[in-house]
Amino acid sequence: MTTIVCPTPLTDIARVQLGHGSGGKLSAALVRERFLPHFDNPILAQLGDAAIVDVAGQQLAMSTDTFVVQPLEFPGGNIGSLAVHGTVNDLAMMGARPEWMSAAFVLEEGLPLDVLDRIVQAMAEAARAANVLLVTGDTKVVERGKADGVFINTTGLGKRWPDFAPGPTRAQPGDAVIVSGPIGRHGIAIMSAREGIAFDTELRSDSAALTPLVELLRARVGDAVHTLRDPTRGGVASALNEIAAASRIGVELDEAVLPVPAPVAAACEMLGFDPLYVANEGVLVAFVAEHQAGAAVQALQRHALGRAATRIGRCVRDHAGLVVLKTGVGGHRVVDMLPGDQLPRIC
Amino acid sequence: MCLGIPGRIVEVRHSEGLPMGVVDFGGVRREVCLSYVADEIKVGDYAIVHVGFAISKVDEAEAKRTFDVLREMSQLDELEWLKDLAP
Amino acid sequence: MKYLSEYRDPAMARALVTEIRRSATRRWVLMEVCGGQTHTIVKQGLDELLGESIEMVHGPGCPVCVTPLEQIDKALALAARPDVIFTSFGDMLRVPGSDCDLLQIRARGGAVRIVYSPLDALELARKNPDKQVVFFAVGFETTAPANAMAVWRARELGVENFSVLVSHVTVPPAMTALLEAPDNRVQGFLAAGHVCTIMGWTEYEPIAAKYRVPIVVTGFEPLDILEGMLLAVRQLEAGRHEVENQYVRAVRRDGNQPAQDLVTRVFELVDRNWRGIGPIPRSGLGIREEFAEFDAERRFSLDQIRTAEPTMCRAGDVLRGVLKPFDCPAFGAVCTPEHPLGAPMVSSEGACAAYYNYGRFRAGSAV
Known about the structure:
The complex is a heterotrimer of chains A (347), B (87) and C (367). With 347 residues, chain A is of the alpha+beta class. Chain A has 2 domains: 53-160, CATH 3.30.1330.10; 176-334, Alpha-Beta Complex (Phosphoribosyl-aminoimidazole Synthetase, Chain A, domain 2). Chain A is 29% helix and 24% strand. Chain A contains 9 helices and 14 strands. Chain A has helices at residues 25-39, 42-45, 79-92, 113-129, 185-192, 211-221, 235-247, 262-271, 293-301, and strands spanning 51-55, 58-67, 73-74, 77-78, 96-108, 133-142, 150-160, 176-179, 225-229, 250-254, 285-288, 310-316, 323-326, 332-334. In chain A, helix 3 (79-92) packs parallel to helix 4. The longest helix of chain A is centred in the middle third of the chain and has 17 residues, at 113-129. Chain A is globular and about 55 Å long. In chain A, 56% of the residues are buried. Chain B has one domain (4-85): SH3 type barrels. Chain B is built from 1 helix and 5 strands. The termini of chain B are far apart. In chain C, the strands form 2 sheets. Chain C has a 6-stranded mixed β-sheet, sandwiched between helices. Helix content of chain C is 40%, strand content 18%. Chains in contact: A-B, A-C, B-C.
């Protein structure tokens, strides 16, 4: 297994690079330096998965996302189902029940209509299963070569549950770090469907709506859940780093208990990837008060999506902002935020 | 340039004259060029694969021998450790 | 995974560490010349476990780190051409040339693709007959047979739009150059296991004898590396200086003959510039005249390349093990993964990047 990833490319050029979209340091820098200064307001400043706005006393969560995945169709879903799940999950991570969403499509000239049909059907199924209504939409078409087939932008809206306000700044020393399921499936599924890196074995994305898991947690341990995050781009490592920084706590992980499914582990070995940095679309990370950690894990395990839920670490007062891993052989290392994307290695 | 990992040969074939095969790595399968191990490899053997090429057959007997030595060492080590704990 | 996971057993690792600490009567300085081994050591925190008994110096075992600037610049020039699809292993994409890197070329519109195997690049050439497909053939001896096969097959199948930009390096001359340096502190070596899978270990026997250093052919998993270190320490304690094989499950003394044969057919030894170290005679591989048509350097005119390395980068000293990354004045300050001055801070296995990403925690305060 390998974690060391090439540091960022030279950053003093005045152009957008792919690394800016990978959910790592470059992405964070782009937001911080190019966007925040212009849009600065207290709601945005929270930088949670969703924004919390107050409308006549009811807290609403609002999220937005754009889906640009390639290939459009992959084992375990397509860009349409991914769009629903991603939108729903952003809301759920902030303690809101997702109810409405919008979808704006940018279609590339030449996209086969049967591909579009499959995408839309998958979206509809996913929305139905998640009890979310698609209430408004938009469609644009751009010239061949300008949109990689389809881009989908969504906005999600949901009402926050009362007395349940998980947020990125609320993790505390002593909290247990819990993951709801096996990690690394989505990113490897995508990678394995890409030209040049294909495997003969089908590795499926874990794309799923996480609302039922959040509901179970809320019902069982309520406000003992301090933070929730769905570790998408950048994987578990990036999500934990963001929370460690936002909450100003240190995180300690135990490599021996990380739930990595065998095919993901094998694919990562071959490519030289670290599962901690691989994207997930059907997993959540929860920071739960220590005394309720056991109950939280049990609650998650009651659902099909959470069968493999397990504790992977804890929060500490030391090394605030750093995530440290105890390795399989008993050493330690820092699990840093990646600068850009993980790249397959041969060394 | 070292990322070579062990996998099990599950299929052997020829592709336009080149000996190719399918190797299973802990559940994930990929096509691998067997040109450099063609004379010594058969289905069921393990090989080290680097950038899509099998570069060596895994010598399972040697692997077992090393492992037995290591295991013995760690058992002795454990006994030592227990001895240190004894009053 | 069989023949992989069991070599990460924590109890056995502890036993090996205990044995190493028990065997070493003084602090020995060992060097590994293999990026993959550097990776494991730092990623698993092995040096933390060893404490004072061994000082591990990370040698120039990362081909990405040592690929000469000129070759990177040639790669960038080729990738920028509209008629070229430039293919490479992932490692190379972020290495800075004089001006930018392959990822930036991609950002500016160049066709840059990652491939897992050189045969995939060849396949890409067959599928895109109207483009020139160039493959960046980088690596040590481990990768040379694969790259040789791609060239061989290109000729066999008549794939005319395929060529390779070669930047292969070989280990023994580098090891010799390190040992010849007057400030060398290294007392024993872990030799790269997969390099030896191909080449065997006969080339190391004269080196061990002449410079009186133990050389242990070592694998890549934690137990392999710890066992390799133990064997080296035992030799040093006993005053022996032989070539020994730890990686018995994958290496034989004569290596892989068919692989060596094809490498010799397609490539020949050339002088090579090692980034950060300088020119080492007959330390690289270049394409033979017989296969010249597949040599990207001969197919495209790449003469007007000007290379310029930042002067503050002490990569050479780090690669030779005379400077620890955190002793470099630029480390963590003007030279970080985000703003690398030199290759060891850029590459996956570069010593500087390794220390920056993993070693900060143990250095005490976060850098």
